[in-house]
Amino acid sequence: MFDSLSDRLGGILDKLKRRGALTEADVGEAMREVRRALIEADVALDVVRAFTDKVRTRAVGVEVIKSVTPGQMVVKIVHDALVETLGSDAEPIDLNAPAPVAILMVGLQGSGKTTTTAKIAKRLTERGKRRVLMASLDTRRPAAMEQLATLGTQVEVNTLPIVPGQSAVQIAKRAMDAARFGNYDVVMLDTAGRVTLDEALMAEVAEVRAATNPHEVLLVADSLTGQDAVNTAKAFDSRVTLTGIVLTRADGDGRGGAALSMRAVTGKPIKLLGTGEKMDALEDFDPQRVAGRILGMGDVVALVEKAAENIDIEKARATAERMRKGVFDLEDLRDQLTQMQKMGGMGGLMGMLPGVAKVKNQIAAANLDDKVFKRQTAIIGSMTRKERRNPKLLDASRKRRIAAGSGTKVEEINRLIKMHRQMADVMKAMGGAAGKRGPLAGLASMMGMGAGGPSPEALQQMAEKMPGGLGGGLPPNFPGGKLPGGMPGLGGGMPKGFPGLPGLGGSKKK
Amino acid sequence: MSETNPPEKTGFWRRLTSGLARTATSLTQGITDLVTKRKLDAATLEELEDVLIRADLGTATSARIVEAVGRGRHDKMIEPDEVKGLIAAEVEQILTPVARPLVIDTAHKPYVVLMVGVNGSGKTTTIGKLAAQWKAEGLKLTLAAGDTFRAAAIEQLKVWGARTGAHVVAREQGADAAGVAHDAITEARVNGSDVLMIDTAGRLQNRAELMAELEKVVRVIKKLEPTAPHAVLLVLDATVGQNALTQVEVFTRMAGVTGLVMTKLDGTARGGILVAIAEKHGLPVHLIGVGEAAEDLQPFSARDFARAIAGLA
Fold first, then answer.
1. A266 — contact with chain B (CB < 8 Å)?
2. Whole-model pTM?
3. CA B42 → CA A43, A45, A234, A281, B38, distances in Å?
4. Which end of chain B is more exposed for a tag (fewer CB within 10 A), N or C?
């Protein structure tokens, strides 16, 4: 079933091949398939509708990342919106109330209340170091109380002794009393499963709530639930005011649209996921994972994320191409600076290189920190496009304007221009000398895809060719460069084969 | 423990309609809302499709039914009751071939029924209700507590055994389920039972190791009695969504499901996935559960179910 779905989606989405911003038509077309995907994932129809409307508005006009189709772009936007709707922060069970804190578990028959009760009790006992008492208020299903008692023994949590013939409310009161006398921190009240239309039973659970004033009222719901999820969640919320939701059987292969439905109609957080039959198979809610499953298009989402990363690689490749031709303007410099920042700045970059720990300290001492990159980026950003393309234009008046615009001083601008000029010289020298292939091909490939990088021989060659030795990519006057040596002092410690900082495009390499 | 008050005997119609009425109410409301006002144009049909989707029929099945309803009637003015009739007719047409009662073949003694399904679908309760019904018909029963995993599942079945006077075969919790099945067949033969119902632990169909375990139970049963299990019933919860299709597929492949039981139709859930399952797998639907009492487990009737879904019941 899912195969045919992704096939169909693929078909539709592939048709939208145009570039540029997402049009209404693109979004509309993709949204029809998204709607279908969400329904097949059991998201309630009304929730699907509200959700797609929201995403539609958000998606129209968004720039499509190169190398993905508009449809794929929409899917990514939908995915992000899903994560957002599901709630990005994990909300743990709240025990911040005077002891004994009551936790009331409610839900339909067979949703997994008793098992979940024991799992939570185990977690609170072991991780939270709380004294927990469990009580079954299920007076209906045969052996329900025995089930909780057995589980209690298994997870080493005390259960309230069974007294036959008591009503749910009586048991609940007895549990609270026992907890007070026994100095328990938490009382977990497991109720009988009930259909929300059963007025008597709904009244009973409301009465239990009133009698015990629980700090948490958790709806235990099956993640395989279909469209009915909204009715169930709404009905329980209106009668007992839920504080959170626990989704069970999240280890099944259902797509779990119930999570979105319930979250959307109640606004209550999904706190935990039941992920197996073992007593410790209880996990914090992970919206990313759940969103991925609901949409069932994890591959598309990954693709778009990858494409977004690739933009940088393409940019680097373009820069490398320009450098090969000996062109290197301030825009190129800015790209290089941004890339370096992305790679974790100077520190991160150095950390990636073997044997530079010492240099790293030197850099730190020389104040060559990431703020410098930021300031330089700001300076370049305050220039006009013309100025960036042709730095020769920069006269005193322009420099003053740029300094004011970027919150820097004219000296800093001068330093930047000098640095750029030296870098450009290096590029030109390399570009000129290297001719067609040679070391620059290696450099380009390094700056481009980062795949493999230049061969050691090529680097050796390059080292000989470069003015000021290896590492010549960074000019002597690199900001803060009070370090000794050619490129801001790094020369000595820099391992061979480090062809100029600016171009280091391949963050995947060590 | 439970004190189920023996509910008064009521007519078939009342029971079914009270069970399915809620299902129908919202559907009826939806259909009436949208058709009294307008003619049967594309927008109306789309809303009709939404109504079916809300009942868990799924996108594909809903689309087909709506298409059938709309065929040749586009832009015609149409009465709400007529639309309901058309929907009911389409649904009934899909369900009729699968509405087949569970008939115990007395040639087999014992007639072995294996109960399978995901956790919490209502296997043990269904066994209990069937035991009560068959006991009333004078059949001699043995129940096998094959759910050796869930805490107190054995006790739960024993309670049903005590209530219905059926013999219960059980081992300790954690015992091999196939071993329990083996013992049960042997004992049922010895005690001359007409029917042996074997409970199993709930399992999600994507858990390979658990499905292999179920396969083993079937294998062991066959070793003792090659014609058994004579019925393998997959129990589905009415609240279940599209995942039920996968459940049917995998349980059928691994355990040879011969028929379906749908439980918990007395809630707000519509159980419309049955229609999609019928279309896709064509497995017989034997029984539906519309309440907590034993007689609330009833034979599945395509016409009644379809009419109830369409709001005509």
1. no
2. 0.72
3. 24, 18, 31, 48, 11
4. N
